[in-house]
User: Fold these one by one.
Assistant:
Number 1:
Amino acid sequence: MAQAFNEALSELVRVIQFRDRDRACCHDLSVTQCYALKGVVDEGKMTVNELAAHLYLDKSTASRVANGLVEKEMLEKRRDEQDGRLVHLLPTERGRRVQRAIESDLLAEYAELLEEFDPAFRAAIVKLMRRLRKTFRARVDASGGSCCFVGDRGGSRA
Amino acid sequence: MAQAFNEALSELVRVIQFRDRDRACCHDLSVTQCYALKGVVDEGKMTVNELAAHLYLDKSTASRVANGLVEKEMLEKRRDEQDGRLVHLLPTERGRRVQRAIESDLLAEYAELLEEFDPAFRAAIVKLMRRLRKTFRARVDASGGSCCFVGDRGGSRA
DNA sequence: AGCTAATAGTTGGTTATGACAACAATAGTT
DNA sequence: AACTATTGTTGTCATAACCAACTATTAGCT
């Protein structure tokens, strides 16, 4: 059972990664930029560090990803009034529009796909996904994986 | 609903990607090498092209990934008797052992996680995952994504 | 048989991704 | 005021992946 689950999940992840690689180009964005844009649009506002944590990336990488999106005029940087260190990332109108465009056909597809399951099951699926995410995240936060190197690594990200 | 589903799924994928990044190092393998090893072990035997298709990678990348695993003595190359062009990838004993090791704790974790859902639901989950995979794959095969560039791209991979 | 596809893998070159470390600027603490 | 912590940026490096060009086989025609 766990076997089948593993099989299905890992293949699914791979297909999705691939799909995202392809999809991203559609709007002249890298995969990571896509994720970042979605994050900022969903949250409305994020600091670079928050973005890094959200995407499980190093803050330096997050910074560069953000810069890319600023260049493409999808995000805007704004320094915090109180704390001069903070840089808030805000979606521009264009950023919001692109994000909506990227998401809309995806949502349509999902909606269609979910239709064939009954409502109770659909709800359970979402619950499961969240549960999975929580579990994995916990493991990751506990310090990077189950085996080996339990030490130092992972200090700077998230 | 589709919204919640998308949210959960995309976050899940991201966490898993991150988890895999961390986990892989445990056995001195890259994430892709892990996937490749699993593929070959599961299938018992694969050509480079088959591996590429399986992982949604360019054949050149697949070739290099395979070489990496051969160097680490987890895979073995063998030319086909009939068709001299074909290179079969076969798992070594060591490869099989490592693959088992990588998978075992993962499976234990999944088993534990699945326990809290009742059997019928568990089965449905797997079904859904497969369904998702199939849908995405179909979309991808149809030629790389929903929008833009419907042409040339994607010809050489898969 | 002999010439021309087509196919399987490999190699070269380029880009992108992301980590780590060092740094600057700001904020808090004693 | 001096030290420390935090936030973000920049420099540098390794890896992963793509595409294109190439080699070596094999298959298909005539």
Number 2:
Amino acid sequence: MGKTNPPFMTGVPELLVLRLLSQREMYGYELVKSVRVVTSEAISLGEGVIYPVLHGLEKAGALTAKRKPVNGRTRVYYSVTPVGRDRLERLSGEWDRISAGVDSALGEAGLA
Amino acid sequence: MGKTNPPFMTGVPELLVLRLLSQREMYGYELVKSVRVVTSEAISLGEGVIYPVLHGLEKAGALTAKRKPVNGRTRVYYSVTPVGRDRLERLSGEWDRISAGVDSALGEAGLA
DNA sequence: ATACATACCTTGAAGTATGAGGTATAGTGG
DNA sequence: CCACTATACCTCATACTTCAAGGTATGTAT
């Protein structure tokens, strides 16, 4: 049934979604593909990850949704609110702190 | 009641414990303090985190435990087994992959 | 006596990434 | 005309794991 809490991924989807949407509005399906691109294929998030994150952030007031019909299909575009920008900054700082800590610990011996 | 799944921390305790023990054997209480030191105070893990990780890794065959009486108190020293070294390498590579991906995504716009 | 550091431990709570599965329309190749 | 793929939205159960708080006990300093 697949792994549920893979190492180092907690919080990453939310951070990436906020980061991407802070540059331009996008819809869910587009985000799925964009994450792969901006992480150089290092990280791949399924729709089952993206959509819940989107809904959660919208409920938290960090995103606003806008429905647009395109070619008969409906797309839901998301934009970042001021609340979302605060959240991005906070999360981003948290990431920097922790990744610096881990890298510091890992590099104790043979760093290039 | 305190946060349970803080962002970016999943897998980090295990990685740090394996990394520290790969350098020299240590006991739980010592690890708690060492983590703070090697991460430059960026990461602090309580005993409620360290001990379960230790027990889990021992059960998985990644660590071996050795009881030593010191000054009337008992210390349990842990060492990394070959299985643990494999696990450390795998986790370490995973960390590098994901942190590189995130950094790449975060740096898309205004990197210093 | 009081308090703090050492040193081990367990427990309940809660968040969350994942794969699989579900619906529906548009376009493409045979 | 039919099958298949891509687009585009969605939900759900599972299982993992960190965390704070609390518990036991000894040594040391005040």
Number 3:
Amino acid sequence: MVLFWHRRDLRIHDNAGRYQALKNNREVQPIFVFDTTILDRLPKNDQRVIFIHREITRLKKEYAKLGCDFRVFYGDPTKLVPQIANETKASAVYTNRDYEPKALARDKAVFESLENLNIEFKGSKDHVIFEKNEVLKADGTPYSVFTPYSRKWLEKLNSFYLRSYPNEKYLDSLHPSTTQSEIPSLKEMGFGEELFHPFPSREFDLEVIALYDQKRDLPSIKGTSKLGLHLRFGTISIRELARVGQKKNATYLKELIWRDFYQAILYHFPHSAQNSFRPEYDQIEWLNEEHLFQLWCEGKTGYPMVDAGMRELNATGYMHNRVRMVVASFLTKHLLIDWRWGETYFAEKLLDYDLASNVGGWQWAAGCGCDAAPYFRVFNPASQQQKFDPEARYIRKWVPEYGTPSYVQPCVEHKMARERAISHYKYHLNKG
DNA sequence: TTTTGAGTTGTTCGA
DNA sequence: GTCGAACAACTCAAA
């Protein structure tokens, strides 16, 4: 008997760690743990918990069809996983690697407990195409600039790294069961079941990906895949998407490379989850005006592109990528509010929230990240609107009072804010 | 070691 | 309307 522990890989098809477990063992028992150390910190209506619960329920049915009982637990995995492994006399626990600092700490604790029980803990690469030290500079150190990283990434890419792990193989290695255990209900775990907005579909539109480079910047149309949520929880395979990108659209593939890049940055520079990637930017004294932050959160800044984006986020848990850049630039440059405040707000609201990509994106916008926009590059929300939503279709969808007297006045004046941002950054970066 | 070219997504100003 | 330069000079990657 061995365990296969699902985490951010809520799928059976094309699952690297699951494949390894089945291939090398006779009796594989799949498990999942609703992690109280995470759940206890979430609001009780968090939509992502509903998403996970639904996907777990779906997985449970798929496993049941294969004659297997997918066992789902609720508790602290650093205690539960070794306990279950011990009780079932498992010789190993298989899983897919997770590179976030908290996940690494959790897995270290699990590894140590399992080691004491003489049980192996085996991780597979599944969440990214290239991980850890697979894409490095010639001198063996990690990249911090995207373009040369992406060149090396593409050079290294071949069909081996994009292969699909066949889910129909070695199915008799699943531990058979004639009975089915229960999944803890949302209610039992203290969570509500009310869904505010439908989740984006896992099915992707090939046409959208084929035209991605032409349409991705227009928030009023479906020009992006909207698969972030599914990539986050592994309900879709990154290898499958990378194959599509390779065939259909180089720009789309490049966005997937950004995802690997930010995962690698966080892995090699874990300080960047909390502090500026470039230490000199920690000298910036943010104005951090609560009142203005509230206006930004609520979508009441008086800048239509910013307000539309924030209201879309609040209503759906999603925001178009172009608009994410606009609202992030506005918060950090126009309002001079700490990027971490924005990052934290996105973490609460975005269904597709991913620590590495979110921190990377926010630091890019604030100018303090690796390969960031120079600080004097300040988005003008009005010209962004002109360029990417000229007919205000996106804006009117989320800000229906746009163009009427009831729409709020701008909370800061653009020209002043722009000049203030540039001189503020310049002053604090050069004060020694 | 030194040199060289390049660097996600922008804006504004003045010719 | 269009175009190039300034924004600010810096750091990274590779030869």
